[in-house]
Amino acid sequence: MKWKYYHTVWVMLFFGWFMAYVDRNLLSPITTYMIANKIGFFASVKNPHALAGLMSTLFFAGYMAMQFPAGYIGDRFGRKPILVMSVIWAAIGTFFTAVLAKSMMGLLGARVLTGLGEGCYYSNDRALITETTPKEKLGVGMGVSFVGLGMGLVGASVGGTWTLNWAVKTFGPDKGWYIPFYVMVIPTLIIAILLMILIKKPSASAQSQVQSGQFVPGSGNYGKTLLEIAKYASVFFILIMAVAYAGTVLNISAIWVSVLILLLALGIMLLIMTKLGKQVGPVFFNKNLQLVYWGALPTLWSLWFYSFWAIKVIKDAAASGISVAGTTAAMFGLAALVGLPLMGKIADAFYQSGRGRKPALILSMSLHALFIFALAYYLYIGGKSLTVLGFLVFAAGVFLFGTWSVSFALTADFAPPALMASAFGVWNLIAEIGAILSPVVSGAIRDATQSWVMPVTVDGILMVLGILFIALIAEPTAILVNKARNSVTD
Questions:
Q1: How many domains would you assign to the chain?
Q2: Which of 37, 383, 392, 402 has its CA 20 to 30 A from that of 347?
Q3: Which residue segment(s) compose the domain that 111 sits in?
């Protein structure tokens, strides 16, 4: 196979996802350690699992808020500057997480800041793959690049746990728990530099596509892009932190703070639709796209249930140490190596045969739901085997990661080319509702029931509802999709 530029794009975006998920998911082993040892502000909290979930929720509040604005900015100014700055921003946010970690509000603010920066990556990453990859290889391209997400989870679960244990032994229990955040800053910056070097500027012929309303890969104006990002991010930071602070002062439960954050995010979406309705209507009001978006919501719920709580679930079920639980939970991230390329390949085969990609998505979501319910049953009967727990987590992960190869390709099939990043931004804006609610709601259910059975069961029920949304998609055959991509404007 001859190496092509789109292979370079896949690989570089893989590493971008890898570091993003290491940085964001370091909280999982760290909060597990803090809860178990009553470190810092977890020493006196009544509902520690709900508070830990709220930390993740606030990250995703910032992440979610930037989804559509980042896509819209990328469609106007180019992909490269916003991708590079997103990774640099992630490094800065990770650094300040360590600096501000001793204060609960400081830690929450640092996670919001990190989320705002990382929220600029997804919509432009998916769009860059779409515009540089041959259509018949789009499912594989979406899958290969997104494997970085799973490997980042492995890095956070195994590498993060190892770094945490080393730091606690070296610097003591009161300081060592936030050292892993410092450690991850340098590799994140290195990836940003590589993105700057290896992602090409658009060719002259590609530049001319702008005049015809086509989107275009490559670089744009860094200064204008940063200014546009900063305008949105500063407003969102103030609003999200105001809600978090008010919740703390008024002693509002973590779940209600999350609900307020969700209402704020939905208000942002409504404002965008009101101000930019004519320009972005095709990605907001297309029926098939909306079904893809809402069908994706349970997959993000499930991702952040497993990503945030898998270590704690396994630790509680098997009565194991954090290192063993972290290594077992890493099976979930490793599943990305199988699920993303496998389901991408299957979806591409279905597409090329004229059956479309929808059947592959329903298949993947159904198998994921099956293994979710299997895990719930195993926990219900008191199962303690690390081997069985690792297998169930891995199997569920294979088909969860597999859903995204197909869902992203479906989004690319239905979205107008000139609004490609905007469409992916709306995908994540809606799907991230699941990421916002999952950690804190699951943690609160765990606090209330003293068991992980019900949180896992809720995850499965939501996945079944997601399948119903996908079943309603009216997907044309591959031939009709190809024609549509040349003419669709709504």
A1: 1
A2: 392
A3: 5-200+213-487
